[in-house]
């Protein structure tokens, strides 16, 4: 009997890519696949995104895994490279690099390469994480143009910290500052992450970087994917492994954290933080069994969770399937219950969970 399983709906994935293209029709799409494609399986997801124009990852190892998996599309390293010795690897594998600081630029200028590489110059317009300062732009741009190690097709990018909030005009300010800075240069521009794609059409330009929304999940505040016509790709499911009758006053689970206020029935479900389910999910966080929602009680253990199935106890049996999140239970909602964001829940799926890829 399969227990913790992430069912991955490839049709939904392709549908979501089509939505990205519908929302940003004039832009090319960089599919963001870092962190094991947000927990969905790096190579498998890449193989199913025939329609993407490029892939993006955070680390060279992720990019190498894509090449080892036979993927041939351009791959962009979102944080660039970390040592000069990485540069021959970039060239040999046709990886494109972000340049966000002086060390990277100097390394590119100093190296001996048989052919030039493609560069995405990252400018910090207010996130204050990676990126050169706006006043450094002219100098960096000129040096990139002069270096024989850099291809002529330099792209210009920036990143949004607040695009999930439509009431925050910081994104508008960033778009204005960025376009004012680079307007003399006839280069491809890349600004929008998923929140930029969904919420800020003025940010679309030539390339969009689509991560979370590809997986059918909303980055916007107080929304779920269906609000943007997206379909959840992952269904995290498991099974009931025991049914337990308890009486008023019984205390459930580690620490006896939850006390029954009346006689009830619990379903013990084979899922825990050892599978990546958030241990901090609060009392009452829903799961779905046979189309009905039931709340979690007691503390979440490594391998098991107890669910109060109360008066429906006669309809639920050992072996019944339990959805922890997915099409019937938005991961955005579970993230709220665990005081985190859906990104973290998806990335945290552990190797113990098996994967089923479904498509027609
Ligand atoms: C992860 C990442 C993205 C994708 O963000 P989503 O919100 O998942 O769409 C885009 N750009 C950069 C620089 C990133 O690091």
From TrEMBL:
Pathway(s) the chain acts in: Cell wall biogenesis; peptidoglycan biosynthesis; Amino-acid biosynthesis; D-alanine biosynthesis; D-alanine from L-alanine: step 1/1
Alphabetical keyword list: Isomerase, Pyridoxal phosphate
Required cofactor(s): pyridoxal 5'-phosphate
Any one GO molecular-function label of the UniProt entry: alanine racemase activity
Positions of post-translational N6-(pyridoxal phosphate)lysine modification: 34
CDD domains per the UniProt record, alphabetical: PLPDE_III_AR_proteobact (cd06827)
Any one of the GO BP annotations: D-alanine biosynthetic process
Keyword Cell inner membrane in annotation: no
PROSITE patterns listed in its UniProt record: ALANINE_RACEMASE
Active site, per annotation: 34 (proton acceptor), 254 (proton acceptor)
InterPro entries assigned to the protein according to its UniProt record, in alphabetical order: Ala_racemase (IPR000821), Ala_racemase/Decarboxylase_C (IPR009006), Ala_racemase_C (IPR011079), Ala_racemase_N (IPR001608), Ala_racemase_pyridoxalP-BS (IPR020622), PLP-binding_barrel (IPR029066)
Enzyme superclass (EC): isomerase
Residues reported in the UniProt entry to bind substrate: 129, 302
Presence of the UniProt keyword Metal-binding in the record: no
Top-level taxon in the UniProt lineage: Bacteria
Pfam families (UniProt xref): Ala_racemase_C, Ala_racemase_N
Coiled coil: none
One Gene Ontology CC term in the entry: cytosol
Gene3D superfamilies referenced in this protein's UniProt entry, alphabetically: Alanine racemase, Lyase, Ornithine Decarboxylase, Chain A, domain 1
Reactions performed catalytically: L-alanine = D-alanine
Function of the protein: Catalyzes the interconversion of L-alanine and D-alanine. May also act on other amino acids.
HAMAP family recorded: Ala_racemase
PANTHER family per record: ALANINE RACEMASE (PTHR30511), ALANINE RACEMASE, BIOSYNTHETIC (PTHR30511:SF4)
Protein name stated in the entry: Alanine racemase
């Amino acid at each position: 009997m399969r227990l913790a399983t992430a069912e991955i709906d490839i049709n939904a994935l392709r549908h979501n890519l089509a939505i990205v293209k519908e929302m940003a029709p004039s832009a090319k799409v960089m599919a963001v696949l870092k962190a094991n494609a947000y927990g969905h399986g790096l190579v498998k997801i890449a193989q199913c995104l025939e329609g993407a124009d490029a892939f993006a990852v955070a680390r060279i190892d992720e990019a190498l895994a894509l090449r080892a998996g036979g993927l041939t599309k351009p791959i962009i390293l979102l944080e660039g490279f970390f040592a000069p010795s990485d540069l021959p690897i970039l060239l040999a594998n046709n990886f494109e690099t972000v340049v966000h600081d002086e060390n990277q630029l100097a390394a590119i200028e100093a190296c001996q390469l048989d052919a030039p590489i493609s560069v995405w110059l990252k400018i910090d317009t207010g996130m204050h994480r990676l990126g050169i300062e706006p006043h450094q732009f002219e100098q960096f741009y000129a040096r990139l143009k002069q270096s024989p190690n850099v291809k002529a097709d330099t792209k210009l990018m920036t990143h949004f910290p607040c695009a999930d909030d439509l009431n925050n005009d910081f994104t508008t300010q960033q778009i204005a500052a960025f376009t004012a800075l680079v307007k003399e240069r006839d280069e491809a521009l890349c600004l929008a992450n998923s929140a930029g794609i969904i919420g800020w059409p003025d940010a679309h330009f030539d390339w969009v970087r689509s991560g979370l929304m590809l997986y059918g999940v909303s980055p916007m505040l107080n929304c779920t994917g269906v609000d943007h016509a997206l379909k959840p790709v992952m269904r995290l499911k498991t099974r009931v492994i025991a049914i337990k009758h308890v009486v008023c006053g019984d205390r459930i689970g580690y620490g006896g954290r939850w006390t029954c206020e009346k006689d009830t029935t619990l379903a013990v479900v084979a899922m825990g933080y050892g599978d990546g389910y958030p241990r901090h999910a609060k009392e009452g966080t829903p799961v779905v069994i046979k189309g009905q929602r039931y709340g979690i009680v007691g503390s979440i253990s490594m391998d098991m969770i107890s669910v109060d199935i109360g008066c429906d106890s006669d309809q639920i049996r050992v072996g019944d399937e339990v959805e922890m999140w997915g099409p019937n239970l938005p991961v955005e909602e579970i993230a709220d219950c665990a005081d985190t964001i859906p990104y973290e829940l998806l990335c945290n799926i552990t190797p113990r969970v098996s994967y089923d890829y479904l498509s027609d």
